[in-house]
C-alpha cells in the first residue's frame, strides 16, 4: 500500500496507423502509445515509470527481460494483430499468469493475447459512421477502484460504435456500460483474473478520434494501472504438486 | 424435466392505478395482472395454471395456503408499496427461500419484498417525459434460457426511462441491458438466487404504456416463469445442524 | 491510496459470554472485542484508530454519530442476536449502504444485520465436539487483497465445525474454503457489496477457542479492514432521480 | 423442453491406460469411455444417443462432421494430452463457441482443450497415496440442475487428491467442493460459458479407482449432459458487424 517503488508500465501499440496514414498521425503526433503514456505520466507522476513499445521494435519490444521488468502492460492494436508473433503472445500470457497486469484497449479486443487469455471469439457489433457517434460511458459499479473520481457518465462526443453481443466470458467485474447515438449498448469496462494476473478491458479509444486526450478516459486508464498492478507475492507460477498431507 | 403437472403461477398486482385512474384502466381493462396473466396463458398454455391476486384481496391474496400452492410469483407494484403488510412480505420471503420463484416487474424495484430479498435501496435514475422514450432491450447473455427466442434488440416504442446507477447487489446473471432515447443505460434483466428461490427482475413494463401486450415482453416473462420454477427437491428449509461427522 | 488519516474502526461484540461465563473470560480476559482490537492495532498501527462497543453500551455503542465516525465495523455476536435493537440494525444497514465497511465474524452469520443485508437464512451445518476439530483454511483466490501474506493453508488446531450448505447469496468473491477433521467444507471467507458498502464474512473465531490470538487470523482481519474501507467518494446515498437527459 | 430428438453425446477418452496397463483394463474392461457411456445410457435412456471416440481413431474420432453431430462432448485424458492434434483442439473449440456442450473430467484439467478455453495453467495440488483417500463431494449450490437428486455429500471411498489452489478463472457457478482425508479442499464441480457453449468440469474420476461406476458420480454426469446441451438457437457464430442503427 505504501509502495515507494514506482510501478513499471509498458504501453504497447502496433503503431501502424500513425506511420502510414497522415490523417491519423495528425491526431496522434506522438503515436497512440505516446498519448496514452503522456496521460499516465500526467496523472500518476512518480507513482509510475512509463515506457512504450511497438510492433516494429525487436521482439515487438516485449522480450523476456522487458516483460520481467513490466508491472502493467497496456495493449493497443487494430490492423496488424496477425503480425504479432505467436511466441511473443505466449510469453506475454505467461507473464500475465504470473502476475503482470494487462489492460487491453479498444480494437485490442481482437488481439491474439486477448483471445488467448479469454478463450472466446471476442467479436462484437460495429459501426463507424462519418463523424462518429456520441458515446456515453456509465458507471454501474460505483465502489470499484477503476471508477474512482470518474464522471457519471463520461461523455465522448465522437466515437465509433461497439455494441452487444460482445463475445467474452462473464467478467469478474462489470464497471462501465456504454450507449451510442444509435441506441446500442456495450460492456465497455470489464475485468478478469487469469492466474495471478489482473486484466482490464476498456473500449473507448480509437485512432480516428482523439479519445486518449480526453481527461476522463485518462483518469480511467490511470485507475486501471493502479488496479492491475501485481499484489505482493505475485509474479510466481502456481505450485503443481505437494504430495505431503498437511 | 418431463413435468406433466402444470406450474402454478400467481400474478400479483397492487391494482390501484387501474381502479382509480380511467386513463390507465383504458390501457389495461383487465388490470396489469390481467394482461400479464393473459400473456402467460397464451404462450405457455397447459404448461401453467395462472391465478391473479391484488392488494385488495384478503391477505392480499397471498395467504399461507395460496403461497404454498404457488410455484412462481410475479409482482407488480408502484404507488402502494407501503400498504403491503409486513407479515405478508415476510411470508413471501420464506416461500422464496424455500424454493418459490419470484419475478419482480418494473416499479416493483421499490417493493418491500424486493428490497427485503436484496438488502440494498434498489434505487435508480428515472425520467418520464410526455409520450415516453424508445427503450431498446439488448440481450448480453445469448445462451440464457430467459433470452430464448427473443429479438436482438427488443424495441419498445414508448417507455419511461430507468437508468444507472441501479443500486442492486451484483446479479448472478446479467441477461438484458436497455438503452433509452436520452442515452441512459439500465441493467433491465437480472437474476438472483436467495436460498432455494430463483429471482428474476425485468424492468420493461409500465402502467402508462401497453408494454405487457408487447409480444417480445410476453416471451421474456414466459421464459422467466419456466426459469424461475422450483427444481425438484426444492421447497424445503435448509438444515441448520448435523452433529454427526460423515 | 496515500491516506494519512487513520481508518476509524469499531469492533462490536455482544460481550455476553465473557461477562457471564468465567471459562470464556479466562480465554478472552479483555473480551473477544479486546482481542480483536489488539490484533488490529498490532498489525495496522497508525493506519487505524480502534474503538470497541458492546450490547450493554447505550444504543449498543452504535449511535448515529458513532456510526458516522466509523469507516469499518466488525461484528461478533452469538447468544444475544435477538437483543440487538431493530432500530440500531436499520441504522447500521443505512451506513453500510452509504459506504461503511462491515466485517461479520463467525457466529455473526445469524446476526440480524447479516441476515438483513443478505436476505437469506444464513444457516449452516454445525458441530462442536469436545476439544474441537482442526480447521484448515485454504486460499482459493491468491491475488485477493484479503489473502495477502497469508499461509496456505491456515492451520487452526481447535475449532467448532461450520459446514455446507451455507445459505448465503453467491458471494462477489470467494477467498477462503475451510475443511474440518470430520470432512466437512465451508466457504469461510466471502465478500459482498451492498450499495456502496463492502462486506466481508470470515468464519474462524469462537468464544471457546483462542482463535483471535492466532497470528494468521489476525492477518486476515487486518487485511479485511483495509479491503472494506470506503473508497473516496463513498458515504453518500445513491441519487434516485435525474429527469434531465444527458 | 419437450425435446423429442435425443441429445447426441460423444464420450471421448484418450484410451491409453486401458490398452497398455492390464491393471487398469481390469478396472475398466470397456475403457473409461465405456463406463461413462454406460452410465449415461443407464440414467438418460432414450433422452440420449451415446457414441465413444478415442485418440487412436482417425482424427481422434472428432472430425468436423462428427463434431457437428455432437450436442455434448465429454473429455477424459491424462498421459497423452500432447498427442492430441492442435487442429482437432481448435476444431473442438470452434464447436464449443458455437454451442456444443463440453464436460471435462478429472485429469482432463491439463488437456489442451480445457487450457485453451480457459486461458490459465489449470494446475492444482496433487497426491496419490497407496490405496487412495476418501473424497467427500459437497454441494454448495442446491438449486443448480447439475446437483439435482445428488447426495449431500457424495462419498467416494478411494480417490487421488486434487487440491487448491486450482488455477482456473472464477467459474460462472460453483456447484461442488470436495475435501480429502488429508484435509485439502478442491472446487470439484464448476461451470463456465464460452461463446454459446456451456462447460462443466467435474474432478471425481480416475483410472486407478472405479469412480465412473459410482451411482452418484453417474448421476452428476447425467445431470451435466442435460445442463450442457445447447439451447435452441445455439450452434451459430456471433455476428461481428451490423452497420445499420436500430
TrEMBL record, chains A, B, C, D:
Residues 8-228 form the ThuA-like domain. InterPro entries: Class_I_gatase-like (IPR029062), ThuA-like (IPR029010), Trehalose_catabolism_ThuA_prok (IPR009381). It comes from the Bacteria. This is Trehalose utilization protein.
Amino acid at each position: 500500500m505504501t509502495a515507494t517503488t514506482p510501478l513499471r508500465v509498458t504501453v504497447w501499440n502496433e503503431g501502424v496507423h500513425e506511420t502510414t496514414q497522415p490523417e491519423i498521425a495528425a491526431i496522434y503526433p506522438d503515436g497512440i502509445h505516446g498519448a496514452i503514456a503522456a496521460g499516465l505520466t500526467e496523472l500518476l507522476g512518480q507513482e509510475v515509470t512509463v515506457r512504450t513499445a511497438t510492433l516494429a521494435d525487436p521482439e515487438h519490444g516485449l522480450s523476456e527481460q522487458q516483460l520481467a521488468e513490466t508491472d502493467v502492460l497496456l495493449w493497443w492494436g487494430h490492423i496488424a494483430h496477425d503480425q504479432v508473433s505467436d511466441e511473443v503472445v505466449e510469453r506475454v500470457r505467461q507473464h500475465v499468469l504470473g502476475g503482470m497486469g494487462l489492460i487491453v484497449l479498444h480494437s485490442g479486443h481482437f488481439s491474439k493475447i486477448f483471445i488467448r487469455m479469454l478463450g472466446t471469439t471476442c467479436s462484437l457489433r460495429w459501426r463507424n459512421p462519418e463523424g462518429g457517434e456520441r458515446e456515453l460511458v456509465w458507471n454501474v459499479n460505483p465502489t470499484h477502484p477503476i471508477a474512482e473520481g470518474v464522471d457519471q457518465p463520461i461523455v465522448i462526443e465522437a466515437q465509433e460504435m461497439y455494441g452487444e453481443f460482445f463475445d467474452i466470458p462473464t467478467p469478474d467485474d462489470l464497471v462501465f456500460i456504454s450507449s451510442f447515438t444509435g441506441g446500442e449498448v456495450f460492456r465497455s469496462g470489464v475485468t478478469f483474473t487469469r492466474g495471478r494476473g489482473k486484466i482490464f478491458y476498456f473500449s473507448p479509444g480509437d485512432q480516428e478520434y482523439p479519445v486518449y486526450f480526453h481527461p476522463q478516459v485518462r483518469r480511467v486508464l490511470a485507475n486501471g494501472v493502479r488496479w492491475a498492478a501485481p499484489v505482493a507475492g505475485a509474479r510466481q507460477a502456481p505450485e503443481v504438486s505437494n504430495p505431503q498431507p498437511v
